[in-house]
Write a structure and sequence with these properties.
The structure is a single chain. The chain is mainly α. Helices cover 79% and strands 0% of the residues. The chain has helices at residues 3-21, 27-35, 40-68, 70-90, 94-108, 114-120, 127-153, 161-187, 195-198, 209-228, 233-241, 246-253, 255-267, 275-293, 298-326, 332-361, 365-381, 385-394. The longest helix has 30 residues, at 332-361.
Length: 396
């Protein structure tokens, strides 16, 4: 893939992440200011429904992309998402807002296709670096989106954020149109992608299907563990440090993102051989980082946060790359969509369990449980070791 087009596609991912996270930390304020709803459970239910919608919609978009092409699909779905985002601004009742906003999220979910699309057009030797770059973009995009949302909420009424979010959708359309025109000009035809023709062929690669099941369960446990610490970390930090500042809590929360940026720079110089052998120390380091954070001392929390951030980035990237090692380019989108279901399910279960853990066992309980989850992830990975070697030998 040409570097310029590659970075345009990565830009689409950045636009989408920033747009999607602008209101995420501020939905309690949004529902209170716009609809007079103050119940935390109500807000939690809405956010859970958003996750569920994405989880269910993405596999559909992945299958449809095989027939019409990823960029063509994105042009239309993001156009609809942009228009629905504008309609969210005009929603006058809570029922109408739910209907329009969740439909908007359904169409927005298609942008996740950009990730396997990029990977399918990269050499296998570049997969680790590309996956790392995308992981960092997700980290910083989420932080940037939350920061942008807080900035705009200080200037405009909450519903106007949806008008700003729509600009991201329309920007993605412009980028997709430009990339498609470049591809068509270079190939001398309007055929955007060859992957969709390949998808119509008989699947001769059934040997890795059972491995995807193991990988899916591994992803579920890993994402459950990683997300379990998020909802109450700011409260835990304030309780341990005695510093009641949202800004300082936000900086502590963001430590893994900065560590991920350092890890990305270092990974640029590393080979991706012995993938699972490097996953093992990463997950063990993650266990240590989580347990260290559970010691209720400020310095220990910061140290544990650094170790956890390094491990989280390395494990996330290596698990993603493992998917592309087991899959084939013509199946990247559909296989990624299946794995994404289990990732989302892990996130959903973590959101539901975190509150119960804290209420029964205290604020440090999610950290200890997450460490146990990382250990369980490592145990599941042992099931893939001999199988992955077999697949690699068959595909040489």
């Amino acid at each position: 893939m040409q570097d310029r087009l590659r970075y345009y596609l990565i830009g689409i991912t950045l636009f989408a992440v920033v747009s999607d996270t602008m209101l995420y930390p501020f939905y309690p304020r949004f529902f209170q200011d716009v609809f007079g709803i103050t119940s935390p459970n109500y807000v939690g239910t809405y956010l859970a429904c958003m996750t569920l919608v994405v989880m269910l919609a993405f596999p559909f978009w992945a299958r449809l992309a095989k027939r019409v092409g990823t960029l063509t699909l994105l042009i239309y779905t993001q156009a609809v998402a942009g228009m629905l985002s504008i309609l969210c601004y005009f929603s006058s009742s809570i029922e109408m807002f739910w209907l329009i906003s969740l439909t908007m999220v359904t169409f927005k979910a298609s942008y996740l296709l950009v990730y396997p699309y990029i990977m399918s057009r990269e050499d296998a030797s570049k997969h680790t670096n590309t996956a790392g770059l995308l992981s960092v973009i997700v980290h910083f995009g989420a932080i940037g989106g939350a920061s942008a949302g807080g900035f705009f909420l200080g200037l405009v009424e909450p519903q106007k954020i949806f008008l700003i979010m729509s600009l991201s959708d329309f920007s993605q359309i412009v980028v997709c149109l430009y990339i498609r025109s470049r591809q068509n000009a270079e190939r001398g035809s309007a055929a955007e992608e060859t992957v969709k023709e390949k998808a119509l062929q008989t699947d001769d690669n059934g040997r890795y299907r059972s491995l995807l099941g193991v990988l899916a369960m591994t992803m579920l446990v890993f994402y459950f563990s990683a997300q379990l610490t998020r909802p109450f970390f700011a409260v835990y930090w304030e309780a341990v440090s005695g510093i009641n500042s949202p800004v300082i809590a936000g900086l502590a929360f963001a430590i893994p993102a900065w560590i991920a940026l350092l890890a990305l720079w270092l990974n640029h110089h590393l080979s991706d051989r012995n993938l699972l052998l490097r996953l093992t120390p990463s997950l063990l380091l993650g266990c240590c980082g989580l347990l260290i954070q559970s010691y209720e001392q400020t310095a220990m929390v910061v140290l544990g946060r650094c170790l956890y951030g390094w491990a989280l980035f390395q494990a996330t990237v290596k698990l993603d790359v493992l998917l592309y090692k087991l899959s084939t380019p013509e199946h990247y989108a559909t296989d990624f969509s299946k794995i994404h279901i289990f990732q989302s399910l892990g996130t959903l279960l973590a959101s539901l369990c975190a509150g119960a853990l804290v209420s029964v066992l205290g604020l440090s309980a999610p950290l200890v449980m997450a460490a146990a989850g990382f250990a369980a992830t490592l145990a599941l990975l042992t099931l893939l070791k001999p199988q992955e070697a077999k697949v690699a030998a068959q595909t040489r």
